[in-house]
Structure formats: C-alpha cells, structure tokens
Design brief:
Layout: H1 2-12, H2 24-27, H3 29-41, H4 64-74, H5 99-217
Length: 218
C-alpha cells in the first residue's frame, strides 16, 4: 500500500518552477518584495510532513533501559551516583547483636566474598583475553567507521550528481521555454499586425464602398 501511495505521489507531483534557471527575482527586486508580501498574507503551511519524507526513527524501542539512558543524555542530566551500600559490611545495629542480625551480617559477608571472587575471575579473564578482545573490537569499530564514511561519500556524490543533472535538465528546459516564449511573442506580434492591417483594410473597403455609392448617386 505504501509503494502504491509513493507511486501516485510521484505521478501527480507537478513542478512549475525551474529554480536553477529562473532568476526573475534577482533581476527584478520589486518582484521579490511582492512575493514576500503575498506569502505573508498566505495562511500557515500545515505541519504534516510530505508523504515522501520517511517517518522519524524511534531508537531502542525494545530496550527501555537504553531508551531511558538516551533520554538522560539528551536532557544533559548527570549520571546517578553509584550505590556503595552493597559493598559495605555493616555490623549489627545493636550491641552485642542478636543471632538473626549476625546471620544477616554473615550472609552479607558471604555475598561480598562471592562478589570479590567473581571480580577476581573477571580480572584474570580480562588479563588473559582482554587485549585481543580490545583489538578485535577496535578493528570492528574502525571497519564500521570506514564503511560509514564510504557510504557518506557515496551519498554526497549521488547528491552532487543529482543536483548537476537537475541543473542541466532545468537549464535545457529553460532554454526551450525561453525560445518558445520568444516565438509566442513574435507570433502574437504578427497576429496584432495582421489584425491592425485587417482593420485598416476594412476601413479602406468602407471608404471605397461609400465613394462608390456617392458616384452611383451622381
């Protein structure tokens, strides 16, 4: 359905100006003033985008955490402070402390010990494989950057070629339109001359008819 709509838009779009060729506004500043006054009286354009403009891309639709982080960065808000309570080993609040409080402290100490053991394991893995993983990641990032730069250059080249082709075609059509306009002006001038000659001939015919009538009545 979308492709059919786009095809209809392409077929029904009519361009009535040649911006690369028309320079009447530059040649005649008074025309530019009139256009600006006329545009000021026109109602505001609708805010809806053209059908050919793609809809905005919504990032991280499937990841609320990343979406929230992106919103935080866009709002220029600082990072929330780290929660250091989980890394502490508080003693029982009462002295000497109940058995349940000491059990809770012991469970917390076991959790902290397991966390430190996991950190040590991760550091050992990082020391063994981190350098190669870092190099591979950097290589992938460099390749991605090169591909993006290449795609950007290709897009710029396509844009330049499109603008060049558009300028050439509009200049060619503009020359044809100017030639047709000149021919139309010449034909219109010829028609006016013929009409003036016809009027003169009609007047001459009327004069001769009157003269003939006068001679016949003598």
């Amino acid at each position: 359905m979308a492709s059919l709509t786009d095809d209809l838009v392409h077929r029904t779009a009519i361009f009535d100006s040649l911006p690369y060729y028309d320079n009447d506004l530059e040649q005649y500043p008074i025309l530019k003033e009139k256009v600006e006054k006329e545009l000021a009286r026109e109602p505001k354009l609708p805010q809806a985008l053209h059908p050919l403009v793609p809809p905005p891309v919504e990032l991280f639709k499937s990841s609320p955490l990343l979406a929230a982080e992106l919103a935080r960065v866009e709002a220029h808000q600082p990072l929330p402070p780290l929660d250091t309570v989980r890394y502490q080993l508080p003693a029982p609040t009462s002295s000497p402390g109940t058995d349940e409080e000491w059990r809770e402290v012991l469970r917390n100490a076991h959790a902290q010990l397991g966390h430190q053991h996991l950190r040590q394991t991760n550091l050992a893995l990082l020391q063994t494989y981190g350098q190669n993983a870092w190099r591979i990641n950097n290589y992938l990032l460099e390749e991605t950057a090169k591909q993006s730069e290449k795609a950007l250059e290709e897009l710029k080249q396509l844009t330049t070629e499109l603008n060049r082709e558009r300028k050439n075609s509009q200049s060619r059509y503009g020359v044809q339109l100017t030639s047709l306009e000149t021919r139309w002006t010449e034909m219109l001038s010829s028609i006016l001359q013929i009409e003036m000659a016809n009027v003169a001939l009609d007047a001459e015919v009327d004069r001769l008819n009157k003269k003939e009538t006068e001679l016949a009545n003598m």
